[in-house]
Amino acid sequence: MKTIDQYFDIIDSAIRHSAVQDVEITYTVSSPTSGTISAKLMFPDNSRLEVFEKVIIRADRPIKDKYRYQYLRARRTIFRYDNSPHHPGLPNFPHHKHMGRRVVGATEPMLGQVLKEIATLLEREGTT
Q: In Å, what is the CA distance from 21 to each residue of 15, 44, 45, 47, 105?
């Protein structure tokens, strides 16, 4: 991958192949190899995923300088992945996942992985 537009195409594809029902997304190109994504992705049960990524393409790979994937249902956070450096004692610092009041170490997810996690939750609850 050479350009930020190629990365944005991967994001679009992940969304198209998911359970997302409605999309509000803004792509901002800062340079040919950097940009941001800000999105609200709505699901059939009216839950939503709020997405923010600040991405730089280096050595043909996307590097997320900052990211947040926050999944909400009825204005209550179900989970959130992010890389804010406020939990230094966790494995894989600064990457972590909030689940209710718990915070656990996590690896940096790709949007497609987060969308699959949400699809699994929706399937378990019979809302797809």
A: 9, 6, 9, 10, 30
Residue 94, preceding peptide bond in cis (omega within 30° of 0): yes
- pLDDT by residue for the chain (128 residues), tens digit each? 999 999 999 999 999 999 999 999 999 999 999 999 999 999 999 999 999 999 999 999 999 999 999 999 998 999 999 999 999 999 999 999 999 899 999 999 999 999 999 999 999 987 65
pTM for the whole structure: 0.94
In 10 A of CB 5, how many CB atoms? 14
Contact 51, 43 (CB under 8 A): no
Identify each DSSP E strand in 32-125 by its residue range.
34-42, 48-58, 61-73, 76-82, 96-99, 102-105
- Confirm if 33 and 54 have CB atoms less than 8 A apart: no
